[in-house]
Amino acid sequence: MLITDKVIVVTGGGNGIGRALCRRFAADTPRAIVVADLDGDAARRVAGEVRGTARDADVTCEGDIQRLVAETMQQHGRIDLFCSNAGIANNGDRGIRVSALCPQGVRTDMLMRAEAEDRSFLIDGAVEPEYVAELVVQGIADERFLILPHPEVAEYVRRKATDHERWLRGMRRLARPLQN
Question: How does the average pLDDT of the chain come out, rounded?
């Protein structure tokens, strides 16, 4: 996508990477740049530099994000690029752990319906839901981030990390038969 004539929102746009993004985007003549930041004064300074619009927004508040989107849509009619750039640094581990379950084929009603419609490529090697549930409990106990019922998914993750574009092309190719 080219930046020219696009409506762009940048959160955390008042400083650091967000500010640099706003300045760089401005060089390619977008239709609008909305500079959103928790620090409203910083957002206004950057917006002034890039001929944009400043918005006070705390991205940790869902209401602020909804307001940011609604106001941008009302003013510009669209958002072509939303750079969710705002970040925080804190010292505190709050005891929250996250695990991501990444199965391939699991013998669920959804998979069986797809198979009946001749749309499933995951039936070979499919595992039972109870097996997945057991791995989830083990993964949570081990505080593992990735829970992989199918070992080959680990290789997919490695491929994704080393050549993201190739991985996306492969995922699109796999998804085509499911969309028909």
Answer: 88
The pLDDT of residue 124 is above 60: yes
Q: Is residue 95 part of a domain?
A: no
Residue 97: pLDDT band with limits 50, 70, 90: confident
Of 83, 109, 143, which residue sits at a domain end? 83
At residue 121, the pLDDT reads: 65
Residue 146 CA to residue 143 CA, distance in Å, equals 9
Question: For the residues of 10-61, what is the DSSP string, one character each?
Answer: EETTTSHHHHHHHHHHHTT--SEEEEEESSHHHHHHHHHHHT-EEEE--TTS
What residues form DSSP beta bridges with 147?
101
Q: Tell whether 1 is covered by a domain.
A: no
Give the tokens for residue 17. 């990477």
Assigned domain for 90 exists: no
Tell which of 83, 117, 133 closes a domain: 83
